[in-house]
Design a protein that fits this description.
The structure holds 2 protein chains of 2 kinds.
Chain A (H helix, E strand, L loop, with lengths): L18 E7 L4 H17 L5 E7 L17 E6 L4 E4 L5 H8 L7
Parallel strand pairs in A: 1-2
Antiparallel strand pairs in A: 1-3, 3-4
Chain B lengths: L1 H20 L4 E2 L6 H4 L4 E2 L3 E6 L5 H16 L3 E5 L4 H9 L5 H6 L3 E5 L7 E3 L6 H14 L3 E5 L3 H5 L3 H18 L2 E7 L17 E10 L2 E11 L8 E7 L2 E4 L2 H4 L15 H6 L10 E6 L5 H14 L4 E5 L4 H9 L5 H6 L3 E5 L7 H15 L3 E5 L10 H18 L2 E7 L7 H7 L4 E10 L2 E11 L9 E6 L2 E6 L1 E3 L2 E3 L1 H79 L9 H9 L2
Parallel strand pairs in B: 3-8, 3-9, 4-5, 4-7, 7-8, 13-17, 13-18, 14-15, 14-16, 16-17
Antiparallel strand pairs in B: 1-2, 9-10, 10-11, 11-12, 18-19, 19-20, 20-21, 22-23
């Protein structure tokens, strides 16, 4: 589908899958803001806009939500869909690792 | 001099005790023994570290800290578990009588299981543990928790690759806990050459408790040590502890001290002559006795009779047996005339019969103490303590028995221990306990004349004038009886030799008696014969006297008649008057009559 993948045929994720991403943050901390910025950028680069949505969960506002996805670190990005669930922690500044983590690109360098 | 020093030491101890209660606030754990050891509990509003290897009881200690906080001190708690799930935790401690679900329902406890799965996690960029803080903070707020447990935080080291960040976050966590004003317990795995595998101890510096397992032989003993307690005096030794039916229990020897109140009451042993040997009245109440001797000398019988006598007085007794079952003991004692069954039925006597190898020494000790606490006996028997040697080393057994003796003395329970050993009295167990016990009875057998005979003697008995004589010890169908032994030129006589001696003495006595009787009879006969002779003589005398009297009467008249006749004849013959006749003529007449 997108230009990033065709060179690497064995993709881990079905091309037609819908992407549901949830980003756990703690208020407006610098790491949280960075993470959101990095995530938006990566999605724009690698995913078709119609096929993903990003949900932001602020644990300061809703601390009880941390238990659901077993969140201990902030920021944490959870790929809810497609299955299986993947978690990426950090401010997502390391784009390569984010893509590997999300399996947007095969795990080979 | 010595007294002054003691006083000074005691005074110093009190000062220290006073000192450690005032400045540093402590949160009592409610765990038996641990509060004594730490002088009141863990540092309040500070984190404490509990480290130990797998299975050493860290989680339970932490859980009990929270649970006791709820049940005994009215402090709510949060238990954050990284390893066990909420359901597992609830199930694991249910056997100890902790109903975690009820505490949760009452709003006193939050169990938060944090599942960190490194497989589904990728690190990409800077992160922190703010989510954990938020989560913990929310739990603390939910119940207004005073106590927090984090078990085991080191799991995070397996989940995150960026350990530098993790370390700084952990440091921040502990500072945060302190700032929240909660009393926290953090558990950690024991590391190689380090206290904890990942060096957590450098962040938690106020109080460090180390748990471990010591395996000797095939039995393991759990041990606890307070490695560090900043700003507080604490016991530094390793203390054995036990996970029992009521949670963790710890019996620090040093917390007991030697301050038992003593009684001058006496407790009869049930063997009258033994009581006589022990200063006339038996051992003191609250003292401990040891009956030692080789197999088959009747130690158990002495012990059973001791219990029997106590029950007969209406006192309670506990019989701890390590070799025989309850039924076996009751049956065996029935054969010597002791009906123990009725005491069991009346609830005065209880048995605890287990193999020593069932559990470690600590477990035995705790189980025994629990039973003593529940049953509240006046008299306790441990039969035999020598079997415990197989479970622990001499030092352990000694430490355990020391605590048992101290415990029983503290409660004023009179104890009788039996100890089996080879012939003679140098037995390992005896050395172990010799200094602990107050009264030491030695039972042994003496071989001679083709038989073994039992002998009993009092080796020592503190605080009473006791007999130093050996008694022969007889197990009869009316229980135990003591008999004197014969000590003579042929040595000590027991058994059949004693009986023979008794028989001999008895027959000698009979002989003497018969001899005397014979003499008495002879004398009587002699007396009778003398009396008879006297009677005969007396008769003769009377006869003679009669006849003499008769003659005297006749003699007088005869002389007159003769004179008249002579006068008549003289007249007839015309002769001269004659002189009276010679008296000898008359006596001749009497003699020849």
């Amino acid at each position: 589908m997108t230009s990033a993948i065709p060179l690497h045929p064995p993709v881990a994720v079905e091309e037609s899958a819908h992407w549901h991403l949830r980003l756990y943050v703690a208020g407006q901390s610098p790491k949280s803001l960075n993470a959101f910025a990095n995530l938006t950028r990566l999605c724009e680069e690698h995913l078709d806009e119609s096929r993903y949505d990003i949900e932001i969960v602020d644990l300061i506002a809703n601390p009880q939500l941390a238990a659901g996805d077993e969140i201990v670190a902030i920021p944490t990005l959870v790929r809810r869909l497609p299955k299986p669930i993947r978690k990426i922690i950090g401010d997502l500044s390391d784009s390569d690792r984010v893509l590997v983590g999300l399996q947007l690109r095969p795990g080979v360098r | 001099m010595a007294a002054t020093i003691t006083k000074r030491v005691v005074a110093a101890g009190r000062e220290v005790a006073d000192h450690l209660l005032t400045p540093l606030a402590k949160a009592p754990t409610g765990i038996t023994g641990l509060d004594e050891l730490t002088g009141g509990g863990l540092p309040r509003r500070r984190p404490s570290l509990v480290c130990g290897s797998a299975g050493s009881g860290k989680t339970l200690l932490a859980m009990e800290f929270v649970v006791r906080g709820i049940t005994e001190f009215g402090e709510s708690g949060v238990f954050m578990a990284f390893e066990e799930t909420r359901e597992d935790l609830i199930a694991n401690v249910a056997s100890l009588g902790f109903d975690l679900q009820q505490f949760e329902a009452d709003g006193k406890l939050v169990i938060d299981h944090v599942n960190v799965d490194p497989a589904e996690m990728v690190e990409a960029g800077d992160w922190d543990l703010e989510a954990l803080f938020i989560r913990l903070g929310a739990s603390i707020d939910a119940v207004g928790a005073d106590r927090v447990v984090i078990d085991t935080i080191e799991t995070l080291f397996g989940a995150f690759k960026d350990t530098a960040t993790l370390r700084s976050e952990l440091r921040r966590l502990f500072l945060w806990l302190k700032a929240r004003g909660v009393t926290a317990v953090i558990t950690a795995e024991r590391g190689d050459g380090m206290l904890t595998r990942h060096g957590i101890e450098e962040y938690v510096s106020d109080c460090v408790i180390v748990l471990d397992h010591l395996v000797t032989g095939a039995t393991s003993t759990r041990r606890l040590r307070v490695l560090k307690y900043r700003g507080s005096l604490h016991g530094t030794n390793e203390y054995p502890f036990l996970i029992g039916g009521h949670g963790i229990s710890l019996q620090p020897i040093t917390s007991l001290g030697l301050r038992h109140a003593v009684s001058s009451d006496r407790v009869p042993t049930g063997i009258d002559r033994l009581d006589v040997m022990l200063g006339g009245e038996g051992p003191y109440r609250g003292s401990s006795m040891l009956v030692s001797g080789p197999a088959g000398t009747g130690k158990s019988t002495v012990a059973a009779q001791f219990c029997d006598a106590a029950c007969a007085r209406g006192e309670r007794a506990v019989y701890f047996a390590f070799e025989e079952s309850e039924d076996q003991i009751i049956r065996n004692m029935t054969s010597v005339g002791m009906g123990l069954r009725r005491w069991v039925d009346e609830g005065l006597l209880t048995f605890r019969c287990v193999r020593p190898s069932l559990q470690g020494l600590e477990a035995h000790l705790a189980a025994m103490q629990a039973l003593v606490n529940d049953f509240d006996p006046a008299v306790v028997v441990l039969d035999p303590i020598s079997d415990l040697i197989g479970v622990g080393t001499g030092g352990d057994v000694s430490a355990m028995l020391t605590r048992q003796v101290d415990f029983l003395k503290g409660r004023g329970v009179t104890a009788m221990f039996t100890s089996r050993g080879p012939e003679g009295h140098s037995v390992a167990t005896n050395h172990v306990v010799a200094s602990l016990i107050d009264t030491w009875l030695l039972v042994r057998t003496l071989e001679g004349n083709g038989e073994h005979n039992r002998m009993l003697s009092v080796l020592k008995s503190r605080g009473m004038a006791h007999s130093n004589q050996v008694r022969e010890f007889l197990i009869t169908d009316r229980g135990i009886e003591l008999a004197d032994v014969y000590v003579g030129s042929q040595g000590v006589l027991t058994g059949s030799a004693r009986s023979a001696q008794e028989a001999k003495e008895s027959s000698d006595a009979v002989e003497r008696q018969e001899d005397l009787e014979q003499r008495r009879v002879n004398l009587e006969r002699h007396r009778q014969s003398v009396q008879a002779q006297v009677a005969v003589l007396w008769h003769e005398f009377e006869d003679e006297a009669d006849s003499v009297n008769r003659l005297l009467v006749r003699g007088t008249t005869g002389r007159e008649e003769g004179a008249e006749q002579r006068l008549e004849q003289g007249r007839l013959r015309g002769s001269d008057p004659a002189e009276p006749s010679d008296p000898f003529e008359h006596s001749d007449q009497v003699g020849t009559r």
